[in-house]
Amino acid sequence: MTLVDEDAGDETTALKRDHQAAAAAAAGMGELDSGAPDTKDHPNVSFASGRSSDVLIVPRPKRDDGDEFVGLRKEELQKYASDPYWVRLRVILLVLCAVVWLAMLVAAIVIIVVAPKCPPRPDQEWWETAVVYRVNPNSFLDTDEDGKGDLKGIGKKLDYLKELKVTAVNLGPFYPSPWDDFGYDVTDFQRICGHYGNMDDFTALLLSLHKQGMKLILDFIPNHTSQKHRWFVQSRNNSDASNYFRDFYVWQNGKVGANGTLPPNNWLNVYGDSAWTLDEARGEFYYHRYSAKEPDLNLNNPEVIQLLDEALNFWLENEVDGFNLIGVDHLFEPKDLEDDNTKIQPETYQLIGHWRELMNNFSFSEKLRKSRRFSRLMIADLNRATNESVEFFEHNGHPGAHLPTNKVLLDLTKNCNAECVFSLLNSWSDEIRTIPKIANWQVGDYNTSRIVSRMEGKEYLNAINMLLLTLPGTAFVYNGDELGMKDVVTNPSINYLFPQDLISRIGQHSPMQWSDKPNAGFTLGTPWIPIAEGYAETNVEAETAHGSGTGHIKVFQSVAALRQEPSIQWGQFSVALNKSVVFFVRQAEGFAGFLVAVNFGPHASTVTFRESSIKDLLPEKGEIVATTHNFGETGRHENYREGTTINLGAAIYLKPAEGIVLKWVPEASFL
Question: Beta strands 284-287 and 403-404: pairing type?
């Protein structure tokens, strides 16, 4: 049965037909009358044919047309639209909306103009804020029990480096070498020494570093090779024009003397011995700024430069992030044998500029753009006075190294008091401020006694690391200095294993101290040199164990974490000295500022920071965010607890080797 509106007209027939078709389709299903509605008591309901199986017609209720809304006619609307009252109302509303909109626009502009400005952020390269961890691969971690560290060992400790807030690893020489100079005497610039691993191990290490957000910098030695390098082996054969390698090194005829053939002149090497050695096979002297086993390359020969370029490109193609060029202040020697060979030659700056261009071209290559990698870093490692070092940034308007090494803090010793530290900081920062370029700092390296040995104990270790990590620019950390390792003391029983000129530098190469297990957890074999004394207490595991307190590593981590702060990354640097306390401000415009203060004197000092030469840079109060954690007495420990607010206009008492870092939020500035 189908219900149909009574007013549906001709639709009744169609609906009835549809109903009949449906009924026919349901044949055999039985009568449905029992389910039909009862309509006999409904006078307004009837069937089209009088049967209940036909269409049910439901009449529509009648409406009173007087109740129906039909709206205004067009003429009536036009009458109201031209009425003066409604015209005025529309104009008033339109003007009011325009005034409100204009007021909102003006208010927005005023807010933009007078609100505190977002301070500018400089476009910094990755190395400008980096903590670069220098790894001695031979002494880091041994995984194959041969007593020497390897690439896999470095890879196993990347989580530790990440927790230290390290952002780049500077890997010491790992090239094939007879090891007459701790691996700096290279026999092949494009291969890896077998006991460190192979290229697969190198690639795995590099990928793991990049995955953890860290960079890899390689030491590269362009000044010299090992005398066992195939270039030198060929060069010493003869000086004939047919010998392609004859001019790969610096050769000179000797002088005839009463006692035989003498060196060409009186030039000395870095160890104070003659810089010339007679080669019996060739019958000439070869020049060596370092030991006789490390002949200097002739960098005036363009073919030598080409081969070194190929070596650099080889590692760049393998996606290393930069190079530390060793001994760059000795790359060239005077052409006139009567000149002083200690002077930096003009050609040196030109070659550094050439390699800078090589790296820039690779950094901005199509391959690099597609991989979204960063620029490559070039470090110029040299031992020069500050005014000579900064010349390597730029020479005669031509770019040089990104970072010439600053080694002034390698002079930190037990006898270097507050005035000494203040002078060292200023000696570099004054030079750098006039350029301006990115600073860099280090307190230890492969060739210098460890900081704990120079300071004759760990008392100042936290203070020195606090200083290192809050100074402007790049921080270089020699592996083990974060936990207070000291030099190993060798003895005659092993000294015979090394060349005499290495004995004085071997102490700082002692293996990394990971635990209190035998051999400090460095190796299950026999270590290539002894482990330093005291490793049972001074090791990574003991420093980081639960319940160990706030040791040297934890202080290092807490201060290194501050390097994420804008003021530490690029803020201005202003240093002052008051009695025995060295302190400085790091402040970037519009960002939280920092005050770092360390007592480098032999006695306690009471200082008032807001009465110093940098008082105008200081607010009234600052909050302690890091300390050296050596405030022994309970009461003083509470006074210097992190989170404590200090009045910078009041006197502050610091004992020797104590240091604090204070932070404050600058007031908003309005135009």
Answer: unpaired
Residues 6+ apart with CB under 8 A from 662: 594, 595, 596, 597, 622, 623, 624, 625, 646, 648
d(CA 559, CA 573): 17
CA angle 534, 537, 538 (to 5 degrees): 75
Cβ neighbours around 200 below 10 Å, total:
10
Sign of torsion, CA 496 499 504 505?
A: negative
Can you tell me the distance from the alpha carbon of 261 to that of 180, in angstroms, rounded to the nearest whole number?
27
- For residue 616, give the nearest of 587, 653, 580 by alpha carbon: 587
Nearest in space to 658 (alpha carbons), one of 639, 444, 539: 639
Who wins on pLDDT, 75 or 392? 392
Q: How big, in percent rounded to 5, are the helix, strand and coil portions of the chain?
A: 35, 15, 50
User: Distance between CA 30 and CA 34 in Å, rounded?
Assistant: 10
Tokens of 415: 């006898």
Q: Are strands 581-587 and 572-578 parallel, antiparallel or unpaired?
A: antiparallel
CB under 8 Å to 413, separation ≥6 — which residues? 454, 455
The stretches of 83-127 forming alpha helices (DSSP H) are: 84-114
Q: Is 218 helix (H, G, I), strand (E, B) or coil?
A: strand
Give the side-chain half-sphere CA count within 13 A for 391: 18
What pLDDT sits at residue 6? 45
Span between the terminal Cα atoms of the chain, in Å: 83
Q: Can you tell me the distance from the alpha carbon of 64 to that of 545, in angstroms, rounded to the nearest whole number?
A: 92
Describe the crossing of helices 74-81 and 84-114 by its angle, rounded to 10 degrees: 60
Residues pairing with 654 in the sheet:
605
Report CA-CA distances (Å) from 533 to 137, 486, 529, 536.
21, 8, 12, 8
Q: Is the dihedral angle over the CA atoms 247, 250, 254, 260 positive or is it negative?
A: negative
Q: What value does the CA radius of gyration of the chain take, rounded to a whole number of Å?
A: 41
Token representation of residue 315: 């590692």
Residue 94 CB partners (closer than 8 Å, separation 6+): none
Cis, peptide link before residue 436, omega less than 30° from 0 = yes
3-state secondary structure at position 201: helix
Please state, in angstroms and rounded to a whole number, the distance separating the CA atoms of residues 585 and 594.
6
Q: Are 170 and 135 in contact (CB under 8 A)?
A: yes
Q: What is the mean pLDDT of the chain?
A: 87
pLDDT per residue over 55-102, tens digit each?
444 455 555 555 566 677 777 777 777 788 878 888 899 999 999 999
**Residues 6+ away with beta carbon under 8 Å from 526:** 147
CB 457 within 8 A of CB 489: no
Gap between the Cα atoms of 503 and 520, Å rounded: 22
pLDDT(458) > 80: yes
Is the pLDDT at 43 greater than 80? The verdict is no
